[in-house]
Amino acid sequence: MSSRRSVNRLFYFTTEDESILAENFPRIEEGVFAVTYKVKGTDDVFVTTAETREAMEHADIAHNVLAEEDGAKIALFHSPLSKEELSDYEDALKALTLAYRAIAMACVGVNGEGNLGFDLSKGTHQFTYFTAPAGHTFIWRLFTDRGEAHNFLAKLTMNDKKALEWVDSIPLDNTGDLKTFH
Length: 182
Hints:
This protein is of the alpha+beta class. It has six helices and eight strands, in the order βαββαββααβββαα. It has a four-stranded antiparallel sheet. A four-stranded mixed sheet has the order 5-6-8-7, sandwiched between helices. 30% of the residues are buried.
């Protein structure tokens, strides 16, 4: 498997008709991990990685870049297994985080685990998933501000020092620090 390159550039874009993406993504050259996500709460705004944007341009897929986000400002907290399986997909994970207008996300388990250690009875809107090419589907908790991340991870990890240090290292305070794209 070829190693994905992380360039820490993420792009918000729009396209005349989103069906253009579905129709034209199969034309993207083999070996490119092309991924794009619709931004939550929008009708026609998407977020993608630099690798995908370059592939879209090479394949002449029409799109209009609205804004660029520095991927280095989006924080990811991995489990040992997610770090092993997803280290080549950091930009795609950060694009997924931005699609939910979050500033960080933490891997909290693998699909199929019996007890993830947290309550989902109030809904799953703060969670998403990403399936690794190796086959595991990882469950991620999204965070819109640093305080939310601290409260969740302190409880989940019983104040694990490494988890709380990660929270302190989140570059952005809250979603107000994200770029606008209108």
